[in-house]
Amino acid sequence: MTLPSRLLVRVVGRLSNIWHSRAQIVARDEPYRLRHVRDHLEALQGALDRLDKARGLGLELILPTLRLEILGHLDRSRLAGSEAKESMLRPGVPAPGPGTFLDELRQIEDDFDDLSIDWKSKCIRAGTEPITLQDIYLGPFAIQFHWERLLHQPGSDCFDIVALDPHPAAANDRVSHPHVKDRSLCAGDASVPIRKALEHGRLADAFCLVRSVLEHYNPGSPHIALDEWEGTACHDCGRNVSEDERWCCEGCGCDFCDDCMGNCACCDATRCHGCLMRCDACEDPCCARCLESCSGSGQECCRHCRVSCVRCGATVARDDRAVAGLCPSCQPTPTLEHILSEKTHDPDLEPARPASP
After folding, report:
1. 22 phi, psi to nearest 5 deg
2. Cα separation values, 243 from 101, 170, 255, Å
3. pLDDT tens digits, residue range 290-348?
4. CA distances from 334 to 122, 323, 339, 348 (A)
5. What's the Cα-to-Cα distance from 217 to each of 107, 120, 138, 191, 304, rounded to whole Å?
6. Which stretch of DSSP H or E encloses residue 37?
């Protein structure tokens, strides 16, 4: 799409103003950073003087507080020094003229199928061809350059990547591309070239670098790997699994990976770990329908660890069963004679024998 001449003139003027403002910010940045270092060093010196004075007066209780204050000033001074050093090493780049930006926009028109200006969002927008990586169709994308972000920091953060025919990852619909999440581009090795292109006003080069990131797959730094792109996300751990590796829990109906599934020890039903419970007696994993609460103890036992009373039909754990077939409630109350007969073997209960003459 060819931009009308009046629109081109307006955009060129806006871009020229943005880059000129950026050049002024960079020019003011170095003295500002140096003043920032000076202020922190002066505050550090004041804290050191207070520490010396407190030591001289023997004010031991306040010394820990003063040391913490000095540590804070040291950290802030070190950070300010790093920022000042970076500012001083940053080369001063003159702002490009209007003719440069006119050529850059014409070049973007030649390199991309679509070029438009969104004044409401304050961005330049160019579209890509549909992108397919390793036989996975991701669709076309719109590359949006937001010019006012340049005032803060030139780089890939100035761009939004919008999926025009979204085919996001199955595990996370916010990831529209292995290197794009929430419209933000993870430029990887292209980060520095993109920043340098924008610093020098090479807008067309920056657009082409962004497109190159979208057209190539870096297996070392994807938000979601391409071999996990299609399929279903495990409801428990979130790992994306293919249809062949997916398991459906018969209890909750959700999809899980193999590592997050198990089987009932009684009926062998397939359940996720959240739908399996432990038998209080044998501690084997069981589904809810294979566990039953035992009267008396209240234990949840599987069928292997419980019995029914032959008199009242109550369910009891095997450990609670003292007399064959009867639960503790149905067992007869032992009489005194029964107790004595059961313990006749106990020497303590036997009568004392008379001593031999």
Report:
1. -65, -40
2. 50, 12, 10
3. 888 887 677 888 888 888 777 777 777 776 554 556 676 776 665 555 555 555 555 55
4. 93, 12, 7, 20
5. 25, 32, 12, 15, 55
6. helix 5-56
